[in-house]
Amino acid sequence: MHAEYIFISSTSFVRMKKEETIDYHIKTVWHGIARMYNQQATKYNGTMSIGFALLNIHSEEGTPATKIGPLMGLEARSVTRLLNSMEEKGLIYRQADKVDKRSVLIFLTKAGKLHKEKSRETVLRFNEVVREEIPNKKLDVFFEVLQEINKMIEKNNIYETANS
């Protein structure tokens, strides 16, 4: 038996199998990518989240701790836990900003730089394989569709007409 979503439009009820919904496919693919990245990260005693955080920290200049959350789409408390874990693993260290003493910069340790490079290689390899298998024309349409969906979400008007 297939799970169904029930959508209510202004005129009727619409029944859809989950496999027919857009969000189901986006979520399923993202979970697959996350599993794949986590499998690679465990080889280096890491996680996908740590890898993405490392990729968002400037290797030489450091990155303000307050910028990491927005870059990754994480809330402050999640970033704090992640940074604490990374510090315990010896991947990062914190240092007060020399210009603005209230700001804390996150820097990579030597081990952090090595892990960042492994993360970078993992992401590049995934993209390389996808680009080898899927023609550029299809990828262009895929990116265009995702950007349009994101614009709709950012406008925050998806449910305005449905609820009026």
Low-confidence stretches: none
The rough form would be described as globular
Placed side by side, the strands forming the largest sheet appear as 3-5-4
Task: Kindly report the name of the CATH homologous superfamily.
Answer: Winged helix-like DNA-binding domain superfamily/Winged helix DNA-binding domain
The gyration radius over C-alpha positions equals 20 Å
Strand content: 5-15%
The number of helical segments is: 7
CATH topology: Arc Repressor Mutant, subunit A
Termini separation comes to 34 Å
**SSE series:** EEHHEHHEEHHH
The biggest beta sheet is recorded as: 3 strands, antiparallel
Mean pLDDT level? 88
| CATH class wording | Mainly Alpha
Count the E strands: 5
Count up the domains. 1
Structural class: alpha+beta
Determine the fraction of residues in helical runs and give it as a percent range: 55-70%
In words, what does this structure look like?
With 164 residues, this protein is of the alpha+beta class. It has one domain (22-157): Winged helix-like DNA-binding domain superfamily/Winged helix DNA-binding domain (Arc Repressor Mutant, subunit A, Orthogonal Bundle), CATH 1.10.10.10. The protein is built from 7 helices and 5 strands. The strands form 2 sheets. It has a 3-stranded antiparallel beta sheet. A two-stranded antiparallel ribbon has the order 1-2. A hairpin with a 7-residue loop joins β4 (92-96) and β5 (104-108). The chain is globular and about 55 Å long. The model has no long low-confidence stretch (mean pLDDT 88).
